[in-house]
Amino acid sequence: MYDIENFFLHRYAEKSHPKWLGFDALFPPSQSRVSFASSLSSKLLKFRMFWKNYIGRASEMRCCGCLGFIRKVKSALRLAGSGSLEPLLRGGDADDSPPNGEATDPLHGIDSRSKRSEEILMRRLQSGNLCREVPVKETNHLIRSEDENGNKMINEYVRVRRIGSGSYGKVVLYQSSVDGKCYAIKAFHKSHLSKLHVAPSETAMTDVLREVLIMKLLDHPNIVNLIEVIDDSKTDQFYMVLEYVEGRWGSEVSGTLGGLGESIAQKYLWDIVAGLMYLHDHNIVHGDIKPDNLLVTSTGTVKIGDFSVSQVFEDDNDELRRSPGTPVFTAPECCLGATYHGKAADTWAVGVTLYFMVLGQYPFLGDTLQDTYEKIVDNSLLIPEGINPQLKNLLEGLLCKDPKQRLSLDAVAQHPWVVGDEGSIPQYLCRCKRENSQRENLVSE
């Protein structure tokens, strides 16, 4: 079996990464990243100088030139000519890259953030400090067959239809021949993902295994549940069996692109914030909040999915350098090359998602990646006249360009527009929090 825990333990013993020169090459040795971050105008000037030079180098290196915001080789440079905005609206998809393709993040530097995430996850799992009452099933054998009707099967699961694609693989609907329930199964090719570099020392397979470790910890009504992992060492396939969220994103149900109306948007936002508060309370940054990663059940409950670019922290220090997943949902501070706080970037993405839900369009969208980044950093937020004043206030707070002044999720949970008839969003008392509280009470006695 492709033992996930052992995989990461071996990674810890590796030698230091070879030095990677990226955005840091712009700064003289005497200039610190902190001093650079102190001047926004200086940031923008250097960013644009870097961008102009980097695009030229990226063309020669067959890199997409997108600063790691997406992992699509070449497509970003052809964006203006193709007329397609799709690369701006989604993250990378390994299915569309050649098996030996490589996409790197020049901002990543000698970043041990991912390794630290893995170490934290390992410690939490080994100590039993997780929220789940029922552990994820781990299966180390794979039987591919057909049922009596000729439908393909993976172990007990009968194929129904393909329902989409994730960051690195396809997503297929299967029905269990044991319990009769439907499940969404994400399928990956290990050899492909092991060759697909998303950073100097990180492959797409690293991201997938980290996603599994994260989901092993989680149990919340607004988080998609991981049921089983199928990994046979004798095969190249790797499967994640997830709960099937049968409903669709509201824009598809209504037949319109966004513009769901305030009541639906308020209900969806309530669920999104509840799920994200739970993640942040466990020091997990999602990194790619957007409608594509928000699934809606038939009863209207929103569940957050796709943790392929998520990171875990030991404490409240949530500084990151690796760029988040999708350009249009990227916070301004992530466009400037310096470190940023992951939780604040998640909150910005919530603001973009709310803007889309209510108005049916994105607040900052250009014709190219460069144009989009410049609008995110430079342009003022435009909100139509006549919009609900409370909603306007919330959007302005979520989409504040200064992350220090941006609304926190706790403030969003108490905001008048969010509270509505549902009431404020309460803190979720999960299993690990309950057990920690009980231990503290015993010690105090």
TrEMBL record:
Q: Which Pfam families match?
A: Pkinase
The answer, when asked if RNA-binding is one of the entry's keywords, is no
GO molecular function annotation: ATP binding; protein serine/threonine kinase activity
- UniProt domain Protein kinase: residue ranges: 157-418
Q: Name one GO biological process term.
A: response to virus
Q: How does it assemble?
A: Associates with the SNF1-related protein kinase (SnRK) complex. Interacts with AL1, a geminivirus (TGMV) protein essential for viral replication.
Spell out the protein name for this chain.
Answer: non-specific serine/threonine protein kinase
Q: Which UniProt keywords apply?
A: ATP-binding, Host-virus interaction, Kinase, Nucleotide-binding, Phosphoprotein, Serine/threonine-protein kinase, Transferase
Q: Which PANTHER family match?
A: MAP/MICROTUBULE AFFINITY-REGULATING KINASE (PTHR24346), SERINE_THREONINE-PROTEIN KINASE GRIK1-RELATED (PTHR24346:SF39)
The taxonomic lineage of its organism, from the top, reads: Eukaryota, Viridiplantae, Streptophyta, Embryophyta, Tracheophyta
Catalyzed chemical reaction(s): L-threonyl-[protein] + ATP = O-phospho-L-threonyl-[protein] + ADP + H(+); L-seryl-[protein] + ATP = O-phospho-L-seryl-[protein] + ADP + H(+)
Q: Which CDD domains match?
A: STKc_LKB1_CaMKK
Provide the residue span(s) of the region labelled Disordered: 89-110
GO cellular component annotations of the record: cytoplasm
**Any idea which positions bind ATP?**
K186
